[in-house]
Amino acid sequence: MKKMWKNMLGLVLVAAIGSGAAIGTSAYMMKKEQPVYAAGVENTFKQPLRLANYNSVAAENTDFTHAAESAVHGVVHIKSVANMKEANAGEQYIDPFEFFFGNRGFQRPQPQPRVGTGSGVIISTDGYIITNNHVIDGADELEVTLNDNRKFSAKVIGADPTTDIALLKIEAKDLPTIPFGDSEKLKVGEWVLAVGNPFNLTSTVTAGIVSAKGRGISGGGGSKIESFIQTDAAVNPGNSGGALVNTKGELVGINTAIYSQTGNFAGYSFAVPISIASKVANDLKQYGTVQRAILGVQIIDPQYVSGDDKEKVKVLEGAYVGGFAERSSAKEAGIEKGDVIIAVNGAKVKSANALQEQISKYRPGDKVEIKVDRNGTTKTFTVELRNAQGSTQILKGGDSAEVLGAAFRALTDKQKQQLGVSYGIEVTGVTTGKLKDAGMKKGFIIMVANNQKITSPEDLEKLVENILQGRSEDQGLFIKGFYPNGRTKYYAIDLAE
Predict the structure, then answer these.
(1) Residue 164 a catalytic site member
(2) What pTM was computed for the model?
(3) pLDDT top residue among 289 and 7
(4) Considering 137, 160, 164, 373, which one is annotated as catalytic?
(5) CA–CA gap between residue 293 and residue 296 (Å, rounded)
C-alpha cells in the first residue's frame, strides 16, 4: 500500500504565494491520500455565519462590483520581518580571503533582516485575522496594513502547519469583516473573486471560476490535511492568506497555493475551504491549538486500489479503507479493511480528500455516522472520533510541558563557557511525566531531540506539540545530551502512550 501511494506523486506546485521572510517557497506534489473533517463548530468571532444560497447565473448577468467593493475592505496586507541571527560560536562562516590575507580593517557585514509580504482576512470586528501559516512562519515582527492605510502590530494567536492556517490579532475596534459563506455548497463552474496583495499591489481583485473541488496537492507526507478549492482566478506571490469570495461577497476560502513552474501564476490557484479554515481559527482562539479529530483509518481513492483487493471494490467514488491506526475508533465501531467510506453524517464523500474535509469539521468526542460500501452492500456505523493520542479530551496549547513533566531553561553564556557548548537547555526540575518515567534527572543538558538542535525551551515544546497534535510523523522523542559531570546520555520517550 505504501509503495502504491508513493507512485501517485506527480504534478509540481508552488505553495508559497506569500513572498518570503522565513516564508520561502515550498514545492507541493499532487497526490491521492490523506486524513479527516467536522460540523457544527461554534463560531467564536463577532460576525454572523451566513450560508449562501447558490443559484446559476449567466456570466453576462453577473455583477462583481458589490462583492469586490465589500471584500477589499476586509483584506489586509501583512509584512513579516525575520531578524537574521549570527552563527553560534564554533559554527561561524570563515571568509577564505580573510583567512589567508587577514581582516585588513574591513568590518564583516551584519546579517540583514529578511522581509516577506502576504495577505490576511479580517474575520471579526475586534481584530482577528486569518492568514496562511507560511506567511508568518519564522517571523519576529508582523505589521498589518488595512485598506484605509492604518498600520498595526500583530501577534500570533496560533498556527496550524497541517492546514497552513494561522490566526493573528491586532488591537483595533469596529473593523470591516467579510462574512463566512458555505464552501461546501460551491459548485464547479461558479464565479469567485480572489482578493489580496500580489507583488505588493494592494487591494487587487481578480475573477475566475471554481475549476475543481477536493483537490490534494501535498508532497510533504500524509500528515497534511488538504481538500483545496481549485480556481482559475489569477493569484500570485503576495496573495497568500487573502480572500476567495463568491459573487455575494461571502468568504468561501483562503488563497494558499498556485500551480506553477516559475513561481508565478500559470493558470490554476488553490484555496483552503472556509469550512476548514474557520474551524481551525475557532480552535486556535478557544484552545490555543487545533482539536484534531481522526477516524484512525488509512485511506486511498478507490480507483487506485490494485491487486486482489481491487476485485472487492464495487464503487469508484469514496475513500477506500486500506488499514487502521493502532488505536482506531473506526475499527472498533465495525468498519473493516476493504470498506469504501461514501458518506459522513449524510454528506457524500467522493474521494479520500473529501473524507478529510468532512472529518476536519469535527472535534474529538464528536460522534459521526459513517456510511460504507462493503462488497456492494451499504452499511452504516456510528463512530466516536478521537484525537491522535487515542482519547476524546480537549487539548490546550502548552500541554507539552505537562506531558513531559519537567521545567527547562536556556543555558546562560557562563554555563556555555563552563560546559564547552554553544547551545542547549537545562532541565531545572522533574515531576511526574514522560521524562521522569524515562529516568531523566534534574541538571541534564538537552542538546538534540529528533535530530534537531535545541537552543531554547520553546524549541522542545514546539517539537513535542507538533507530535501531540499529529503534525509530525514522529511518534516520540529521541533526546541526546549529557550531565554536568560529562556523562553522555540518550533517552527514548514514547509520546503515543
Answers:
(1) yes
(2) 0.70
(3) 289
(4) 164
(5) 9
